[in-house]
Amino acid sequence: QVQLVESGGGLVQAGGSLRLSCVASGNIGSINTMGWYRQAPGNERELVASMAGGGRANYADSVEGRFTISRDNAKNTVSLQMNSLKPEDTGVYYCNAFAWRHYWGKGTLVTVSS
User: Fold this and answer.
1) Is residue 104 classed as helix, strand or coil in its secondary structure?
2) Where are the beta strands (DSSP E) in the chain?
3) Separation between Cα atoms, residue 77 and residue 59, nearest integer Å
C-alpha cells in the first residue's frame, strides 16, 4: 500500500503561480511513476504531468511550458510548480503514484480567478 498526501492548493489570480507538493509513504520502494492529475467540474480526471523513476517527465499539451514537475526520491516527494496560471487550470489536483496499481491522494483544490 502507498499513501499520498497533497498540499499547496489555493486561490490565485490569473497569471499567478502555485506550487503543489505530495509526500508518499508506505511501500514506497515499489513506486515507479509519480504525477499529478486534475479534475475540473463536469470533466473527467486528466493527466497534468508525470515523472518516471528515471526522471523523464511527461506533460499535457495544455500545461507544457508553464508547469514543471519535479521529484525527490530521497524525500519521497513529487512537486508541481505551476506558473502563468489560467482560469481553465481550475480544478482538484490529485497526486498519483503507480506501484503495480494506481494510488491517489485525496486531492487539493486550485482555483484561478480571471
Assistant:
1) strand
2) 2-7, 10-13, 18-26, 34-39, 46-51, 57-59, 67-72, 77-82, 91-98, 102-104, 108-113
3) 18
Q: Provide the grid cell at 38.
A: 486534475
**How would you class 61 by CB atoms within 10 Å of its CB: exposed for 0-12, middle for 13-18, buried for 19 or more?**
exposed
pLDDT digit string, tens, across residues 54-112: 889 999 999 999 999 999 988 999 999 999 999 999 999 999 999 999 999 999 999 99
Query: What is the mean pLDDT of the segment spanning 11-31?
Result: 95
DSSP category for residue 85? -
Strand 57-59 vs strand 46-51: parallel, antiparallel, or unpaired?
A: antiparallel
Q: Which residue matches cell numbers 494510488? A: 103
